[in-house]
Sequence to fold (60 residues):
Amino acid sequence: MLRLVKAMPLLAAGQTLETLALDLGCGSASSFVSMFKRMLGATPDEPRRGAARVVESKPY
Fold:
């Protein structure tokens, strides 16, 4: 979950998924997307487009 917390501002800043995945220690962009969707129920593009409360909508 810590990786996803770190990812949110980087996504909002427009960092590419490939760079973001490598910076956060994921093996690839596709593995990061899979983890993101599994944990939050949304793809990384949704917060990037400004979808509200992606993190808050999924209970921990």
Observations:
- The chain has one domain: 2-46.
- The mean pLDDT is 79.
- The radius of gyration is 10 Å.
